[in-house]
Design brief:
Elements lengths: L3 E2 H8 L2 E3 L8 E2 L3 E2 L10 E3 L12 H6 L4 E4 L9 E3 L3 H17 L5 E6 L4 H13 L4 E2 L10 H6 L8 E5 L7 H6 L6 E4 L7 H4 L2 H13 L7 E4 L3 H4 L9 E5 L6 E9 L2 E7 L5 E6 L5 H15 L4 H10 L9 E3 L5 E4 L6 H14 L6 E5 L9 H14 L4 E5 L4 H9 L7 E4 L2 H11 L5 E5 L6 H11 L2
Parallel strand pairs: 4-5, 5-6, 6-7, 8-10, 8-11, 9-10, 11-12, 12-13, 13-14, 18-22, 19-20, 19-22, 20-21
Antiparallel strand pairs: 1-3, 2-7, 14-15, 15-16, 17-18
Helix pairs in contact: 4-10, 10-11, 12-13, 13-14, 15-16
Bound molecules: adenosine-5'-triphosphate (ATP) and magnesium ion.
Length: 467
């Protein structure tokens, strides 16, 4: 964090400072966190009340790790200065807003905001890699994209930071606006709108509205990068106050991919830029769906004036999207594609199509699937649809894990899977035993589920068994 006095911090957060007589003279510049285990000497601990536990119970642990100041909702008689605020999450946002505004005032910070139902983290990593070639860059760790993760990321901005890349997540109306109110981006990207988190949103139309909050929350006149192939995204152009830069695979796209070739080695495509230049890209991130994320990143490159060579160089330097996103794990003849960080109907379909596209005739295709959560009233039909896709794609073996996913198995059977082509297991251990005896050299195994189903660890274990 930039160097701030305790007085400045308390004012920025609208809090009351306790336990310090000289607040103008005590300065803090350590990193902030809500997890006491991650606090380092000189750090700022935000005691966030959570659903499971309450950060106030960990104030002492944070101080033991060296917290210089703690942000709390009540006086906990801490042995270091405390700033008491009405709401810790709001205070976190307020401090982040202050820090970003302070650095931005010098005029050398560019903020890039990324949203969409799928591909945010992947694109965030690509854009951060690009920006890091241009100047000091701050980007979220993992998928830090909500009212806690985004401001924690913003607080990492220093006076010499040139690029701040933000992943903006939402599971409801107003969530993205809340984040753009803290730091309105200079460049916005909307990747696609799908059914991810649709249950919480209350339908895909609400999702469209929620994602369009990014376009409305940009700095006035800011360029916006939109997926021309997704009509729900393309419609957001109406809300843009600056230029629209279109990316996609169809004719109207200004940043476009063509001649896409898919294999286990990655995806190769021709990249075309608005100035008419083009080059072949050997993109190692697996799956055709990631080409769109690559194009979104290339569009940022165009907006920032990076050369074609520069863009291609960065795209080719990235070896994986992120842990557990289409992560390729090789072994003795058995290949595991571990994509079980999360699952929505779109990403499930994309993963299954990739499984089939990368397989050669000699390879058996095995899909190990768990529940897609957060779909609300869409859950039943969407699990049916995926089961149908598995059958239609002629995937050799379906392995369904967990009671929440059982409908995948039932629907696949109804759809004509026979003779054990679909198997159901209550838990990962049983599925593991089956997979270890069933798989042999030449098999390609896709493992995919929502985070809560935990299949990513099953994917890791299966990969290890054949390592
Ligand atoms: N354009 C796309 N269409 C369909 N699936 C996609 C697309 N881009 C990425 N995915 C898949 O979506 C899943 C999530 O990817 P990623 O983590 O990058 O997305 P995210 O938007 O950050 O998700 P979250 O909402 O969990 O933060 C992965 O399985 C990935 O392969
Ligand atoms: Mg994410």
């Amino acid at each position: 964090m930039i160097r701030l006095s305790l007085a400045q911090m308390a004012t920025a957060m609208g809090g009351v400072l306790l336990g310090c007589d000289t607040p103008e003279d005590i300065f803090v510049d350590g990193p902030s966190d809500t997890d006491s285990r991650l606090i380092v000497p000189g750090g700022v601990f935000f005691a966030k009340p959570g659903e499971v536990t309450d950060g106030h119970l960990f104030v002492d642990a944070a101080i033991a790790n060296g917290a210089a100041v703690v942000i709390v909702e009540r006086d906990v008689r801490a042995s270091v200065p405390q700033i008491v605020v009405p709401n810790v999450v709001d205070a976190l946002g307020a401090l982040a807003k202050f820090v970003v505004a302070s650095v931005r005032a010098a005029g050398e910070l560019t903020i890039i905001g990324i949203t969409g139902s799928n591909g945010k983290t992947t694109t965030k990593n690509l854009v951060a890699t690009l920006c890091a070639t241009l100047g000091k860059t701050v980007a979220p760790r993992d998928s830090f994209n909500n009212e806690v993760g985004a401001p924690l990321t913003m607080l990492k901005v220093e006076s010499d930071t040139r690029y701040l890349v933000l992943e903006l997540g939402a599971s409801g109306i107003g969530h993205i606006k809340r984040l753009t109110d803290l730091a309105s981006p200079d460049i916005g990207i909307v990747l696609m709108v799908g059914l991810a988190h649709a249950g919480e949103f209350g339908g895909v139309e609400a999702t469209v509205r929620a994602k369009s909050e990014l376009v409305q929350g940009l700095v006035p006149g800011a360029p916006v990068i939109l997926n021309v192939d997704d009509p729900r995204v393309a419609g957001m152009a109406e809300l843009a106050t600056g230029d629209v830069l279109w990316f996609g695979q169809t004719g109207k796209a200004q940043v476009r991919a063509s001649d896409v070739e898919i294999s286990l080695a990655g995806t190769s495509f021709m990249l075309h830029l608005p100035d008419g230049s083009s080059a072949r890209v050997e993109f190692k991130v697996l799956g055709e769906h990631h080409v769109m994320n690559a194009l979104a990143m290339a569009s940022v490159g165009v907006a920032l004036g990076v050369s074609l060579d520069g863009i291609v160089g960065v795209l080719e330097s990235v070896v994986r999207a992120e842990r557990w996103r289409m992560e390729l794990m090789g072994g003795t003849g058995v290949t595991v594609i571990n994509d079980a960080y999360n699952a929505s109907p779109d990403s499930m379909a994309a993963g299954l199509k990739t499984l089939v596209q990368v397989a050669q005739t000699a390879n058996r295709t095995i899909a190990v699937l768990g529940e897609m959560s957060e779909l609300g009233e869409y859950a039943g039909e969407e699990h049916d649809r995926i089961a149908l896709l598995v059958v239609r794609l002629n995937i050799d073996q379906l392995v369904v894990v967990g009671t929440g996913a059982r409908r995948l198995h039932i629907s696949a059977m109804n759809e004509g899977s026979w003779d054990g082509e679909s198997r159901f297991f209550e838990n990962s251990d049983d599925a593991y035993d089956y997979l270890v005896s069933f798989c042999h050299a030449g098999d390609i195994v896709l493992v995919k589920s929502s985070n809560s189903a935990g299949l990513r660890f099953l994917g890791d274990r299966v990969a290890e068994a054949f390592a």
